[in-house]
Write a structure and sequence with these properties.
Elements lengths: L2 H10 L18 H7 L2 H16 L7 H6 L11 E6 L6 E4 H17 L7 E5 L4 H12 L3 E5 L5 H11 L3 E5 H8 L11 E5 L10 E2 H6 L15 E7 L7 E6 L2 H11 L8 E4 L6 H13 L3 E5 L5 H10 L4 E4 L1 H10 L1 H4 L9 E4 L6 H11 L3 E5 L9 E2 L13 E2 L5 E6 L5 E4 L6 E6 L8 E2 L3 H5 L2 E2 L2 E10 L5 E6 L4 E3 L2 E3 L1 H9 L4 E11 L3 E10 L7 H15 L7 E4 L13 H9 L14
Parallel strand pairs: 1-11, 3-4, 3-5, 5-6, 6-7, 10-11, 10-12, 12-13, 13-14, 27-28
Antiparallel strand pairs: 1-2, 8-9, 9-20, 14-15, 15-16, 17-18, 17-19, 19-22, 21-22, 22-23, 24-25, 26-27
Length: 600
């Protein structure tokens, strides 16, 4: 057997897990038994009971108070909640006790401005402390929060603010001057702009954050919220039209708490690092809320991506649980294994990934280079939290999404005649992934788009729009978005399997695959790849990659054409924008590109 064949067999094998792999006893140690006994009501009672113990508000269910105030009893009040790492200089910390004081001040300050329950608060800032205070303080006030990417330009900011009818914007002075001042007159509902001074002095018509906070009370705000009160508004872009505002309620805290326990395996002693920006739903659900609900310490890196800096953070901050994106993992892979091995990570016990499917090559890279496989999981803006995951105790099937978490029932469906939806009980049949409703973080609507919301459901099933299959062992496998699947000469081809095969070639850093119209085949597979350093694009390499893909996939599935790009277009959350590759290839309208990474 050749070395290549042996390597291929290794790549396709399970990553076996045993008790020796666990640094602590996993929270989901017996998945089958714990799934059978699971109850969302018990999760709610646990959170509510701890909240009553902490501050006595028996009828209240509020994400901000659950995340912060529950963790301020006794010695725990001094535990570090958030550790901020500036681009230069020393880290600075916020304890749970100090975070409670600051978020109370923010909530009371909003009330002094006449801003109350249900009012929309937008937060536009880098990963600085006032962003986290503003999000949690707004939630304590019963207001509805939308964190935005600080890299957004004026147009996407204005579009979202108009849809949401934002009353308050929290931002920095520099961002205000560059992005907001020129559009403020076009935002009639925007009454207050609260500015964090990062240089340049005060600006007329704005509120100075430091002075305003200093004047506010630290007493608990006198606002009560119910589980069904609106809490978060996350925008998600479609292929056409304006962004959709997905509505989430305070009850979503139950999902954040349960999935932090079971998918991310958070324990009280953990040092947790979620690399996602809060402008992306992951950066809110798991960069802010879930770790605070579990009373752990979160690392917040204020700087842009730098491979060596990230490895140094894992080492110096003693990170134990790390949640990141496939794009970031591929960028680390591109930087080479020598850099990764420059630093030891004795405390790191779990690496998880989300954002788009994680290619098998990346899972194995984690095992071989970092000493730990990477646990992929799946969810959407609309689901509000992790639904399917490779959990610590289970064997990993590299390339799979994993299995549904406790409290989540996932099925594969096909669309029959007259709009009916049928569940497919047979393993390894591709269809649309659907989830039975009932988990608390499921979105409650698209703001002012009721018909669009209704189309997401069939009876008690939420239709995800993702194509997948379930194997005989209960693992789910992503095939592609329904709009991405390629129909070529009678074959249905998922872009992900083609991209994964290309990524196994040592020259390929990233790959994106589309279907290109063809008069004979209907569509042919075309791939776009970016290369690792020390490899040069050219006809010889193009033919080599096509040959490599044919050996792995067969001629019917392998790309017929490959183009080289310096970088692939990605969203700020890290997803490769296949639809944009297709639009540019075919000269079609690009649609909404507000979430496109700068320069892509």
């Amino acid at each position: 057997m050749t070395v290549v064949a042996e390597l291929s067999m290794t790549r396709n094998a399970l990553i076996r897990k045993s008790a020796a792999d666990w640094r602590v006893t996993p929270n989901l140690a017996d998945p089958q038994a714990q799934r059978a006994a699971f109850s969302w009501d018990r999760i709610g009672a646990e959170l509510r009971g701890q909240a009553v113990e902490a501050h006595g508000a028996a009828g209240d269910f509020n994400i901000g108070r659950l995340a912060v105030d529950r963790n301020t009893d006794g010695a725990h009040a001094g535990r570090i909640a958030l550790r901020f790492l500036p681009p230069d200089g020393m880290p600075h910390d916020l304890s749970y006790g100090r975070l409670r004081q600051l978020t109370n001040r923010f909530a009371n300050g909003l009330q002094q401005l006449g801003v109350g329950k249900g009012d929309r608060i937008f937060v536009l800032a880098g990963r600085i402390a006032p962003l986290y205070v503003a999000v949690l303080g707004s939630l304590k006030n019963g207001s509805v929060v939308t964190p935005l990417f600080s890299a957004f330009g004026p147009e996407p900011i204005a579009t979202r603010a108009k849809i949401a009818k934002a009353r308050v914007l929290v931002t920095t002075a520099s961002l205000y001057r560059r992005k907001v001042a020129k559009i403020r007159a076009d935002l009639p509902t925007l009454e207050h702009v609260i500015l964090v001074d990062d240089g340049g002095g005060p600006i007329d018509g704005t509120v100075d954050y430091e002075r305003w906070m200093a004047d506010a009370s630290e007493a608990p705000p006198e606002v009560s919220t119910t589980p069904d009160d609106m809490a978060l508004l996350h925008f998600t872009s479609g292929t056409t039209g304006t962004p959709k505002g997905a509505i989430h309620v305070h009850d979503a805290a139950r999902t954040h708490y349960a999935t932090g326990r079971y998918a991310l395996d958070l324990h009280p002693q953990d040092i947790f690092w979620c690399t996602a920006d809060p402008g992306w739903v992951t950066g809110t659900s798991y960069g802010i809320i879930a770790p605070l609900l579990h009373g752990v310490t979160s690392i917040i890196d204020e700087a842009d991506f730098d491979a060596e800096r990230w490895y140094r953070i894992l080492h110096e901050q003693q990170v134990s649980v790390w949640y990141t994106a496939p794009t970031a993992i591929r960028m680390l892979m591109k930087a080479g294994p020598e850099l990764a091995r420059k630093y030891p990570y004795p405390d790191l016990r779990l690496i998880a990934s989300v954002g788009e499917p994680l290619n098998p090559e990346a899972v194995w890279w984690g095992k071989e280079v970092l000493g730990l496989p990477i646990h992929d999981n799946w969810w959407q803006t609309e689901t509000g939290g992790i639904m399917i995951a490779n959990i610590p105790v289970l064997d990993i099937k590299p390339g799979s999404m994993g299995k549904p978490l406790p409290g989540v029932d996932a099925v594969i469906v096909r669309h029959a005649e007259q709009g009916a939806v049928e569940v497919i009980d047979v393993p390894d049949v591709e269809g649309e992934l659907a989830l039975r409703t009932g988990w608390p973080a499921l979105f409650r609507g698209y703001l002012d788009q009721d018909e669009r919301y209704r189309k997401c459901f069939s009876g008690d099933l939420y239709l995800t729009g993702d194509l997948a299959r379930r194997d005989a062992d209960g693992y789910f496998w992503f095939v592609g978005r329904a709009d991405d699947v390629i129909k070529s000469s009678g074959h249905l081809i998922g872009p992900f399997e083609v991209e994964s095969a290309l990524l196994e070639h040592p020259a390929v850093a990233e790959a994106g695959v589309i279907g290109k119209p063809d008069p004979m085949a209907g569509e042919i597979v075309k791939a776009f790849v970016s290369l690792k350093p020390c490899f040069e694009a050219g006809e010889a390499l193009r033919l080599e990659l096509i040959g490599h893909a044919r050996k792995r996939l067969g001629a019917a599935v392998a790309p017929k054409d490959i183009a080289f790009l310096a970088a692939l277009p990605r969203t700020r959350s890290g997803k490769i924008m296949r639809r944009l590759l297709k639009a540019r290839e075919l000269g079609l309208p690009e649609g909404d590109t507000s979430t496109l990474e700068a320069g892509a």
